[in-house]
Each structure stands twice: as C-alpha cells, then as structure tokens.
Write a structure and sequence with these properties.
With 106 residues, this protein is mainly beta. The chain has 2 helices and 8 strands. A 5-stranded antiparallel beta sheet has the order 7-6-5-4-8.
Length: 106
C-alpha cells in the first residue's frame, strides 16, 4: 500500500503551517491534503504565547533564536526573533536540551 502513495511537502511561511499533499499513483484516485497544526511556545519572561513560524528552527540546536509571532488580541502581529533561552512549552515545561545545546549528548 505504501508504494501507491506519493507525498510532497510544502512550507508556507506566511501562513505558519506545512501542507502535506498525498497523491495515490493510480489515476482517478483521491488526493489528500493535510495541514499541520500551528506550534505555540510561551515566553517565560511575560507569559505571552508565540506562534513558531519555522519548527525546524526550534529543534535545531545551532539556532539561538526563532522567528515567531506573539499571539496577542485579534490582530496578526509582525514576526520577530525570540531567543530560545526565553521559551518554554505552553505548559511551562522547558524545551529539551537537544533543541538548545549543540553539544548535548544523550
């Protein structure tokens, strides 16, 4: 069954989510489009939620900051850089060390 599927992934930086299109290799087969969720983190300094614009920046330990948008009010906020050292998950849990420290060894 897996050989019948072809997946292509596109990033949409302006919309803040990935689009995954799955096509069956047979003609007339349905096409599925899956949009992933928006990832949020929290600024530990002021407890504001931040929409992560590129999840790969968040998990890359060589990046010290991420591009994101504060989630404040109804208006879409401009993107800005946030130091990863100030970010936590919305639950308050710290980000994993393997996302923050390029020298981390498990």
């Amino acid at each position: 069954m897996c050989s019948l599927l072809h997946a292509s992934r596109q990033k949409s930086k302006t919309e803040g989510f990935d689009t995954l299109t799955i096509n069956r290799s047979k003609p007339n087969a349905p096409v599925f489009v899956v949009k992933s969720f928006i990832m949020l983190v929290k600024n530990r300094e002021d407890n504001t939620l931040i929409q992560v614009m590129n999840s790969e920046e968040l998990i890359d330990p060589s990046k010290e900051s991420i591009e994101g948008r504060e989630k404040a009010g109804e208006e879409v906020q401009p993107t800005q850089n946030f130091p990863k050292s100030q970010l936590v998950f919305p639950s308050g849990e710290s980000l994993p060390q393997c996302w923050l420290n390029p020298d981390y060894q498990s």
